[in-house]
Amino acid sequence: MSLRSASKQILAATRNVDKLREIRQILEDTGWRIAGLDDFPPYPEPSEDCDTLLGNALQKAREGYRRTGMLTLADDSGLEVDYLNGRPGVRSSRYAGEKATYEENVDLLLKELTGVPSPERTARFRCVMALVNDKIERYWEGVSEGIILNERRGQSGFGYDPVFWSPELGRTFAEASAVDKNRVSHRGRALRSLSNILRELA
Ligand code: ITT
Question: On the chain, which terminus has fewer CB atoms closer than 10 Å, C or N?
């Protein structure tokens, strides 16, 4: 694929294949093709050194646009656990270390919440989705409330999904179908707001 944009094509500036899959599912009916970073020659990722989801999302989207010339969206998301005063939050992917796996992050979360009773295990996923080109610089936020279980349940999804129990679904995100998760998830909510703009631009 060339570095210049084709019409009705948007870049999702993420290296996370699980996020990219969900972004493609959620924006399926907008008529836009969603390219991923793997469709382009690699460029050094901007370091996620902002201390806010918004700062990181804008940084990733601006860099994607600068490198490709395509209308670019970028997602920065995290899990905020009330008992941990909002941690891991913006550090969710690096919670257990710079190169931590999903499994290691979930293990650490369960360890930090050992013995904490259910009513104190409230949490939320938050997603900030930024959209950038030379004419647009906008962002949307989506939130999904839940409770952190004390053991994993379910095989679907990714990241913290097996321990995130959603009262809206009556199950964990990892027990839910992709359609159900996307309907109530932080990412689904942020992207549905953004998709109105994509429909106008299509
Ligand atoms: P990019 O920066 O390349 O997009 P990343 O995985 O580093 O990928 P983030 O910095 O936004 O992305 O980190 C988000 C982390 O939060 C992610 O790695 C998961 O551990 C967790 N997370 C985000 N959305 C999630 C979801 O829908 N379900 C479960 N965990 C999620």
Answer: C
Band (1; pLDDT cuts 50, 70, 90): very low
Q: Which pLDDT belongs to residue 7? A: 60
pLDDT of residue 114: 98
Helix axes 17-26, 186-201, angle to 10 degrees: 50
Q: Is residue 157 lining ligand 1, measured as CB closer than 6 Å?
A: yes
Question: 77 C-alpha to center of ligand 1: Å?
Answer: 6
Q: Whose CA is nearest to atom 1 of ligand 1?
A: 14
Domain covering 6-201 assigned CATH 3.90.950.10 in the classification? yes
Instruction: Tell me which residue has tokens 């610089």.
Output: 137
Choice from 48, 77, 90 to test ligand 1 binding pocket (greatest atom count within 8 A of CB): 77
**In three state form, how does the secondary structure of 97-143 look?**
CCCCCHHHHHHHHHHHCCCCCHHHCEEEEEEEEEEECCCCEEEEEEE
The verdict on whether 49 is a catalytic residue reads: no
Alpha-carbon span 85 to 42, nearest angstrom = 36
pLDDT of res. 128: 98
